[in-house]
Amino acid sequence: PLPGACGDPAASPSPGAMAGAVLVAAVTLALVAVPSGGSCPARCVCASNILSCSQAVLSTVPTPLPRFTAVLDLSHNNLSRLRADWAPGRLAHLHALLLSHNGLAFVSTEAFAHVPHLRHLDLSSNRLRVLEENLFSDLAELEVLLLYNNEISAIDRTAFDNLGRLRKLYLGRNHIARFPLELLRDGSRPPQLGLLDLSANRLRGLPVAELQALPAWLRDRLYLHANPLACDCPLFQLVARGRRRRLSAVLDFQEELRCQLAAPGRAPVAILALASRELLNCSEAREAVLEAYLGDSVTLGCDSRLRAAHSRHWVTPSGDKVPEEAGNGSATVLANGSLQLRALRPEDAGTYACRVAGPAFNETLYVELLVHNFTLHGPHDGLNTAYTTLVGCILSVVLVLIYLYLTPCRCCCRGADKPPAPRDDSLNSSVLSTTPNHAAGEPPRPRAAGHRAAPGGQNGRFKGGGTPPMAAVVAAPREGPRAQRKVSDPDSVSSVFSDTPIV
Hints:
By secondary structure, this protein is of the alpha/beta class. The chain has helices spanning 15-33, 208-212, 216-219, 233-244, 248-251, 385-405, 425-428, 470-475, 493-498, and strands at 45-47, 50-52, 71-73, 81-82, 96-98, 106-107, 120-122, 130-131, 144-146, 154-155, 168-170, 195-197, 222-223, 229-230, 258-260, 269-270, 286-293, 298-300, 311-315, 331-333, 339-341, 350-357, 362-372. Pfam families: ig (PF00047), LRR_8 (PF13855).
């Protein structure tokens, strides 16, 4: 009881003390009634933002879960159902949820509404049988989804809608009998899907034409081994093409890529062995690559080695058969079996298949068409960029050589009425000659023995074999302007560069 509770006025506390006591009591009651957000559930181990409840014999998700949990490991427990209220509060920081080896048979379509930022979800090794409509639609940031080793036999076409960031999907070791083509077809598949594992299921047939048209980056990560596929030549050509292109999905699982022959009672055979005469005598598909531009018209040849073909038809990259009758479309089959495409568009790019059926065996030829997203240069366009660059480089080299080795001619013709302008020593020296300039017909003057040059000259420096003494210059008879030309100065800039090439 608080002081003064018995009604003694002398013992009653002051209003400030009363308010402080009430505040302390309220805070204490709140701490007791509401558990702390950082408390770790029983039978779990918490390390920073990681919550591990693996192998804890749990039949329900433990509560309360810390709101800051980023990784939640609930694997190897007894969680048979995952309801919508398994997480009472919103776990905004959770990006990895591990639920493998739990015997899960039911997952609510609203089970992931509280974890919108989940990037890694592991539901492997459970007892899931059906993937319901919009089951993962709340996981817009999901990147990796593990569903292998379940009992999945039915997949709703909208189960993986809204998974714009999904990169890896593992559906191996299930009971899937229908190939989920919606996961690969443009417009319906996750745009960033780069790995699809459908191994060890119950697939008996494959949409080979559409798989051939897949981008290489997705075809490389499509795993189809350990399925009871029916043997035929298109299947062989699909696998042989992957081996020729060294796709890891084929090279790493060649022994498990097997198929079942139509004859009853026969054991599965390797798909790559169907080329032998004892089996189907399939021929390996040949490929060609053709490049074109928007708006062009191209002809795809079907150069088959079969001379007596029973039938011949083309299949577009989208898997549609081109009709043999000429229609109003852009694709037409010619009389010789070639395919003509007019007014190319960006969506016309891809791999076209020409299937030829003969009396002894069948053959399929593939032509990969690359459509560049710019128009071809017209006849009046300028030079090509590479050609222009090459011509520019050659002209630059020629100009540099002209500048280095061709000297402009000396102007020797002057008017008689104009007196010659005085020139400096460095300018009067010859550019190409290595000997000093003298007057025409005048021999060089010998220097008197023991004569010492005057200290004058450039900057007062001594010129050891340069300008003759002043007396000799004065005594020399004047014979016109050419007689007044001085001997070149070996220390001048022109004399130095006259003996060495300019680089």
